[in-house]
Amino acid sequence: MQAGTMVATEDRGALLRHAQFGSSSRHMRLQTLVRLRWLAVAGQTATVVIVAFLLRFPLPLMEAAILIAALAAANLMLSTWFPTTHRLGPHSAAALLGFDLLQMASLLFITGGLANPFAPLICVPVIISFASQPIRHSVLLILFALICTTVLALSPYDVPWYPGEMLRIQPVMQLGVWCSIASMMSFAAFYAYKVSHEATLLADALAATELVLEREKHLSQLDGLAAAAAHELGTPLATISVVAKEMERELRGDDRFREDVQLLRSQSERCRDILRRLTSLSTDSEEHLSRLPLSSLIEEVIAPHREFGIEIEVVELGERGSEPIGNRNAGVLYGLGNLIENAVDYAKDKVTVTVAHGPARVGITIEDDGPGYAPDILSRIGEPYMTTRPSESERAGGLGLGLFIAKTLLERSGAAIRFGNRAGGEPGARIDVEWPRWAMETDKRK
Fold first, then answer.
1. Which of 134, 159, 138, 155 minimizes the C-alpha distance to 51?
2. What is the pTM of this model?
3. Superfamily (CATH) of domain 290-440
4. Residue limits of the Histidine kinase domain (predicted)?
C-alpha cells in the first residue's frame, strides 16, 4: 500500500490539473435558451395585445408584429435545425443573445424608447450572458446593450398613450432612466457572474474530489488484484512449465532447439517467481487489509514525504495499546496526505505531526516552520482555487484546490478542521484535525 500511496502522490497534480481545466468553457443548452425566448415571445405578444386592444392606446401594430414574428421565426429555425440536446459554444450563444437584445431594443425604440415602462427588460439578455457565458463575451454584450440604451434615449417615437394626449418625458428624466438602467444592468450582471462563477468552481472542485477519492479506492485494491492475477495465471503457467520440461528432455540431443527450450523453461520459472512475489503481497489476513491502527495510518501517510529534505517528527501523546483501530479509509489517507504535503512544501526545515487519542476524541495536529497563513485569508481557507500562502504562490499551482479536496474528504469522514498559525509568535502554519473516537474506530465485536 505504501507504493500505491506514492503513486497517488505523484498523480495528484495531474488529477487536480484535469479537474481545473475540465470546465474551462461554458456551453449553454440550446433548449434552455429556446424556452426563454418562447417566454419572451409570449410576453411581448400579450403586452402588445393588451396595450392595443384592451387599453386602446395608439401603437405601431404592424412593426411590433414583425419584430415579434422575427423572434418566433428564429426560434422555430433553431428548434428545427438542431436537436434538443445541442449545446451552444460561447460565440453562438453570444450571437443569439445579441440578436435577442437587438430585437428587444428595436421594439422599445418604436414604442417610446426609454420612456417605455418596459425599458429595463433590455437588461435580461445581459444577465443571462453573465450567468452562463465566459466573461469576455459577456463584456462585449453589455457594451452593446449600453449602446442600444443610448440609442433608445434618442427615439423620436412617443409612448403609446390616451388619444389626444401626449406623454412628454423631459431630457433630465431620460438621463435618470438611462443611469438607472445602466447601473441596474451592471450590478445585476456582476452579481450573476460572481454567483455563477463560484458555483462553477465549487462544482469543479467537488468533481475533482470524487475523482481523487475514486483513484485512491482503486489503488487500495491493487494488492487484492495482484493476488487474484497470480492465482488465475498460476495454472496455465504450471502447464507451460511441465510442457517445457518434457520438450527439454525429448530435445536434449538436438542442438537446433536445445537453447530455445532452455530459454522457454527459464522464463517460465521467472514468471512463477514474479507471481510468487505478487502473491506474498496479500499473504496477510483480510483483517490487515481492511483495518488500520492509528499509528500505522500516520506512518502510511507520512512515508511518501520523507525523501524531500524536510524532517518530519511524529509525537504520540497516547499509548499505542489504547490507540483506535479503524477501517482503511481512502478519503482520510488522501486528505491527511495532502495536508502533510502542503506542510512539507512550505516548511523550511521541519514538520511536526502530533497524534493524541483519548476515550472520546482523536486528534492530529500538523505544524510547519514555514511562513504560515496570511491573516487576511485565514477565514477563507478551504475555498477552491485560492492561494493560501503569502509567498511562493507559484509552487504547487497556488490554487488551493488540493486543500479544498483534503478538507472536504476529512469533513466527510466526520472530522472537524481548524486552520491557523503556530502559537507563541513562532513562524509557521498549524492545522488541527479532530474526530470523535467512534468515527475513527471499528467495532471489534463485528
1. 159
2. 0.50
3. Histidine kinase-like ATPase, C-terminal domain (3.30.565.10)
4. 228-439
